[in-house]
Automatic annotation (TrEMBL):
UniProtKB keywords: Transferase
Annotated GO MF terms: transferase activity
Originating species: Pseudodonghicola flavimaris
Keyword Transferase: yes
Keyword Transferase: yes
InterPro entries according to UniProt: CoA-transferase_III, CoA-Trfase_fam_III, CoA-Trfase_III_dom3_sf, CoA-Trfase_III_dom_1_sf
E.C. number(s) listed in UniProt: 2.8.3.-
Source organism, top-level taxon: Bacteria
Pfam families: CoA_transf_3 (PF02515)
Stated name of the protein: CoA transferase
Length: 403
C-alpha cells in the first residue's frame, strides 16, 4: 500500500534527534526522505549508545528508518550544486544546526527559496533563529530546564530532575513534523508559498507545559515539584507501591471518577465525606486523599488493588518496564512494536494509526551513502562522474545495502 505522503520529498540535513525524528515521523507515512551526511562527519547517532548485533547503533536504526542516505560534502562548490538540484525538486528541507550555519555555507533560506520558492524549511535550534540567546549552544537537557519541566519533576526536598528519555528533543521532533504539515497545508490552500518553520528545542515542551503559566498569571498559583503527586494536586492521584512491590499510578480526572476512586479505597464513609464533595474541595484536603490511597494500596497486592478498582471503575495502572512493554497484550494487539524482515532489532511502529493509509517501517537505518549512487544517477550523473566525486572526497558510496 502506498503511504499518504508518498509524493512528499524531504531533504534532511539534520543530525542527532530533533530534526531527524521529524523526518522519520513523516517517512513512516511514505515521505521520500534523503538524509545527507558529510563523508567525513556522519550523524553521531550511528555510534552513540548501545549497538545491535551487527555493530550498528540501535538509536540510528530507528532515527534513520525509511530514509535514503547520501554522503555529500554539501558545503563544497560541487556539493552545493548537488544540494541545489535536490532542493529544486523537494517539498521540505530540515536542518537543526546552530543559527547561521546555513547562511555561512551560502544556503540560507533566501537562497533556498530562490532555488525553490515553494520549499518549506524546518529550522530547529536550541533557542531559535533570533533573540538574545540565539547563539547560545544548547542540548535537550538545557531545553528541559528552560521549559520548566525539570523544575516540576522530583521531590519537594530534592533536586530538579530530567525525565528518563530525551523529552525536549523528542517533542521537538513531533512539533517539527506538525509545523511542516501546517506549512504544507498553507501552501496547498494558496495561503502561503514556501515558508520557514522556526522552532527552538525548548518551545515544544514549553507549549506542552502550558498550564503553569495561566495558573500563575490567572490564579496566582505557582506549581512546585511534588514527588509522587501532581505539582498542583488538582485531582486525586499519585504513584503508589503495593504490598508485593508493584508500582501503580492512580488517577482521577473528574469529580465523578474521583468519587469512585475514594469509594474504592475508603468505602462510603470516605467518598461521602463533605470535604470531598467537589474537586475544588478535594484539592484543599489532598494530603488526606493521598494518605488514604497510599494506606489502601500499600496493604494490598497489585492484583487485589486492580480487582477492587475494576469493581468501582477506577483507574490504577501498572508502571511498566521496557521488558513488560514488550509483552503487554494491549501494545501487542495494537501492533505498536514492529520488526523488519531479517532484522533482530525492533522499533516502535508508526503512530497514529490511520484506518485507510497506515504507516509502515520499510527498512531500518542504512549505512552512510547506501543510496548515493542511485540518488546521483536520478540527478543525471553518470558512473564516471560519481566515481570522480567519490575520489575527490565530496561523495561517499556504500554498496553493501541495508545493514
Amino acid at each position: 500500500m502506498s503511504g499518504p505522503l508518498e509524493q512528499l520529498r524531504i531533504v534532511e540535513l539534520g543530525h542527532v534527534i530533533a530534526g531527524p525524528l521529524a523526518a522519520a515521523l513523516l517517512s513512516d507515512f511514505g515521505a521520500d526522505v534523503i538524509k545527507i551526511e558529510a563523508p567525513n562527519r556522519t550523524d553521531m547517532m550511528r555510534d552513540l549508545g548501545p549497538k545491535a548485533e551487527d555493530g550498528v547503533g540501535v538509536w540510528w536504526k530507528t532515527l534513520g528508518r525509511n530514509k535514503k542516505t547520501l554522503g555529500l560534502d554539501w558545503k563544497s562548490d560541487e556539493g552545493r550544486d548537488i544540494l541545489r538540484r535536490l532542493v529544486e525538486d523537494a517539498d521540505v528541507l530540515i536542518e537543526n544546526f546552530r543559527p547561521g550555519v546555513l547562511e555561512r555555507a551560502g544556503v540560507g533560506p533566501d537562497v533556498l527559496h530562490d532555488w525553490n520558492p515553494d520549499l518549506v524549511v524546518l529550522r530547529v535550534s536550541g533557542y531559535g533563529q533570533d533573540g538574545p540567546m540565539r547563539d547560545v549552544p544548547a542540548f535537550g537537557r538545557a531545553a528541559e530546564a528552560m521549559s520548566g519541566l525539570a523544575h516540576l519533576t522530583g521531590f519537594p526536598d530534592g533536586p530538579p530532575m530530567h525525565p528518563g528519555f530525551p523529552a525536549a528533543d523528542s517533542t521537538t521532533g513531533l512539533m517539527g513534523a506538525l509545523g511542516i504539515m501546517i506549512a504544507l497545508f498553507a501552501r496547498e490552500k494558496g495561503i502561503a508559498r514556501g515558508q520557514v518553520v522556526d522552532l527552538a528545542v525548548f518551545e515544544a515542551l514549553l507549549r506542552l507545559m502550558d498550564y503553569p503559566v495561566p495558573a500563575l498569571t490567572g490564579a496566582n498559583l505557582s506549581p512546585r515539584r511534588n514527588g509522587l503527586r501532581q505539582p498542583m494536586d488538582f485531582a486525586p492521584g499519585g504513584m503508589f507501591r503495593t504490598s508485593d512491590g508493584v508500582w501503580l499510578t492512580v488517577s482521577a480526572g473528574s469529580a465523578e471518577t474521583a468519587q469512585r476512586l475514594l469509594r474504592a479505597v475508603g468505602g462510603d464513609a470516605l467518598a461521602d465525606d463533605p470535604r470531598f464533595a467537589t474537586l475544588g474541595e478535594m484539592s484543599r484536603h489532598m494530603t488526606v486523599v493521598f494518605d488514604a490511597i497510599n494506606d489502601f494500596v500499600t496493604q494490598h497486592t497489585a492484583k487485589e488493588v486492580e480487582a477492587v478498582f475494576a469493581r468501582h471503575d477506577a483507574v490504577a495502572s501498572r508502571v511498566l518496564s521496557v521488558e513488560e512493554i514488550m509483552t503487554n497484550e494491549q501494545i501487542r494487539h495494537r501492533g505498536d512494536i514492529v520488526s523488519v524482515d531479517g532484522k533482530q532489532t525492533k522499533v516502535i511502529g508508526p503512530i497514529p494509526h490511520l484506518s485507510a493509509t497506515p504507516g509502515e517501517v520499510r527498512w531500518l537505518g542504512r549505512p552512510l551513502g547506501a543510496d548515493s549512487r542511485s540518488i546521483l544517477r536520478d540527478l543525471g550523473f553518470d558512473d564516471d562522474r560519481i566515481i570522480a566525486l567519490c575520489e575527490a572526497g565530496l561523495v561517499s558510496l556504500e554498496e553493501k545495502g541495508t545493514p
